[in-house]
Amino acid sequence: MKELLIIDKQKYLEENYPFSDIPKLTDKKRCIHCDGIITVKDYKVFVDEDGEEYICCPNAPECNGAVIDWIDLD
Fold it and tell me: Which superkingdom (predicted)?
């Protein structure tokens, strides 16, 4: 997969976040794959060979967690 450079991360989240409760860029989450505490604004976007884009853990590609693997800290 190839990493995409996202300039306006807030706009990208608003247009592509797969769930209804879009987090703030300053929110902290835990990635259940790498057990890391992440800041949403640090997310990465990868595109596969079919053109599908994935919002991924900031620790990617070492961590294979995607947005579905982020949980609230509380």
Answer: Bacteria
Length of the chain, please?
Answer: 74
Q: Is the Cα dihedral 32, 33, 36, 41 positive or negative? A: negative
Token look-up 């800041």 returns 39
* pLDDT digits 0-9 by tens, 42-58: 999 999 999 999 999 99
pTM of the full structure: 0.91
Could you tell me if residue 52 is left (phi over 0), alpha (psi between -120 and 50 degrees) or otherwise beta? beta
**Cβ within 8 Å of residue 23, ≥6 positions away:** 13, 17, 29, 40
Task: Identify the helix (H) or strand (E) that includes residue 26.
Answer: none
Please tell me the total count of domains within the chain: 1
